[in-house]
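User: For my dataset I need records formatted as: sequence, then structure tokens, nothing else. Please produce one.
Assistant:
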Amino acid sequence: MNTFKTSLAILASLVIFSSCGNHKKDKTADQVKPYPVITLSPQTANIYSDYPATIQGIQNIEIRPKIDGYVADIFVDEGASVKKGQLLFRINAPQYEQDVKTTEANIKIAQADVNAARMNVDKVKPLVDGDIVSPYQLESAKYTLESKQGALAQANAALNNAKTNLSYTQIFSPVDGVIGILPYKIGSLVSSTTANPLTTVSNIESIYAYFSINERQGLDFFLAAKGITMQQKLATLPPVNLVLANGNVLPTAGKVETASGLINAQTGSINMRATFPNHDGLVRSGSSAVVRIPRTINSALLVPQKATYQIQGKLFVYVVDKSNKVNSAEITTAASTDDSYVIQKGLKAGDRVVADGISNLREGLEIKPTK
């Protein structure tokens, strides 16, 4: 009997203790937690838009042989910097040396023929003056002289042509630049019809960044720009930046200089070109990068990116009502800064938004707003 009474007393104590514990937990759950809240107001925002770009030097010149022959010497290596007029290749083509020697010999023959024809004219002329021979013979001698002089001129032209062909055995750089790949090695047979060039010399003192914007972006872009003509609008655009493949920004800003006059019917895009100084040769032709175009919005509503969450590709924020209860609201963004979104639709000036710690929130939860 005593054991039964003792068990009842222990059970009653456990029930009372459990009830007290649950009551404490309920009080803890009902506590209103503080969350940072911001009130939206229009402000000036500096935003930017990024466009993938391909890089080309201001000059990409293919070096091709103009004659047939074997590669005898290569005086540069891939990636080397060269100056205008620097010797790059020598083509072994001995037939052109022989052509020069042959035409030089032909010139001597032609010159001798001219001299003989002139002597004949000088011989016939006094005979005609003395009525010893017919004037016809003098005219014939003069025509022969003119023919020989023409043959001499033709031989001289042939010599010039042979020397020109011989000069093609040495290939020089047409500009300052950087050497590309060298697909042909010493001993390779090349000609003017060879598919690949001997190399490419890229002038990368300045570089072109080619990028595209869609038709809608183009309309917004140029409607916002000042000026009447396209060139005037381009001239008023702010400097743009080039973000390299490693995420670094090229130290010197560039300028958007051209926009295509036609919209690509297949892609619906407008091709544009920005020019950037590249004095140290850091960026090479063929690189990939991103053109970053800045823009200023005078009356923008900004929401921190950490105040948003995503569901099925849509962005949401928690809006605080007058009772300090939170409700989710879908938003549409127009652009972004480094850490904020520019709101296009879904919020208005004066709305209060939870700025951080939103992972613990739920619909209708009451919070204590803090700044």
